[in-house]
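User: Second chain of the day. Same drill as before.
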Amino acid sequence: MSSRDAVLSAAREQFSRKGYDAATVRAIAAEAGVDPSMINHHFGSKEQLFMAALESPVDPKDHITAVLRGPREGVGERLVMRVLTVWDSPAGAAGVAVLRTAMQHEWGAALVREFILNRAINPLLAGLGVSAEEASWRGNLVASQISGLILTRYLIKLEPIASTPHAVVARALGPTIQRYLTGAVGADHLGG
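Assistant: Same format as last time:
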């Protein structure tokens, strides 16, 4: 096994077990049996290593910035449009492969959870100024809708949603996601 492959294997293990924030470059390097400088040599940064470990062709954090531009009341619809645009691009095929892996392996599911939270949901909620008390609940609700959309449109290919134009889907789902992001969500029992 090459040092790069050893680092990727160790990174997947560390990220899935500890999460992105708690996993350290030093611990990953130690598990891989390499000097920490090898991580910088092969990947450049912890963030780039995480992306490589997930094998993601797209960084959602880049798209969240665009989703947040514009009126606050349109974020839900813009998020759905952006998701559909990315998933209907060549990156979508790679995304399907990542999700299939995640469904088959706990380490893959853990990586996808970390990826969704740290690269998409948390930056979105932070950009909207959602309180820490409400962020987890609201984030999970948004993730449930987006993952449901991806499952029905791209994996199961349930008609008519699989072939419905982006704008129609965005108009249908946008208000629900908007409510999850900024409206009443019945989280009183969570302290939010």
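The domain at 3-54 is CATH 1.10.10.60 (Arc Repressor Mutant, subunit A).

User: Great, on to the next one.
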